[in-house]
Amino acid sequence: MTSFEDTMPPSGSDWFARILVALLFTWILLLSAGVQAAGWAASQVALAVGDGLPRPILAALTLGQGVFVLIPAGLLAWRWRERRYRSVFRLWALAALFSCLLAAVHLPGPTQAYVAASLQIGLTLVYGGLLLLLGRRPTGEEAPTAPFSPLAVALAAGPLIALPWLAWGSLGSPLEALLNVASALLFGGVAALLLSRFWFPILHDTARSGHRQALDLFLGGFVAGAALLLMTTSFGYNGVQLLLALVVPGLSWIAMAISGRRGNLLPLTLLVGIAAAAPLLLVDPREMAIILPFDLISVAGRAFAAATLSLLIGWVLGAVLLLLRWQRRGQASGSTGARAVAGLLVVGAWGVALGVYALAGHPGFYGERLFVVLNEQADLASAEEIANGEARRRLVYETLTDHAESTQQDLRQALARVGIDYTPYYLVNGLEVRGGPVLRWWLERRPEVDRVLYNPTLRPLEPEMAGPASPSAPTSPPWNLERINAERVWEELGITGEGVVVGQSDSGVQWNHPELVDGYRGGEGSHDYNWFDPWYGTSAPTDWGGHGTHTLGTVLGEAVGVAPGATWFGCANLARNLGNTALYLDCMQFMLAPFPLGGDPFRDGDPAQGADVLNNSWGCPELEGCDADALLPAVRALRAAGIFVVVSAGNDGPACSSLDDPPAIYDEVFSVGAIDRSGALTMFSSRGPVNVDGSGRTKPDIVAPGQQILSAFPGNSYRSWQGTSMAGPHVTGVVALMWAANPALAGDIARTEEILAETAQSYTATTPSCSTGPSPPTNAYGYGIVDAYAAVQRAMEE
Question: Which member of 296, 375, 379, 451 has the greatest number of CB atoms within 10 A?
Answer without folding.
Answer: 296
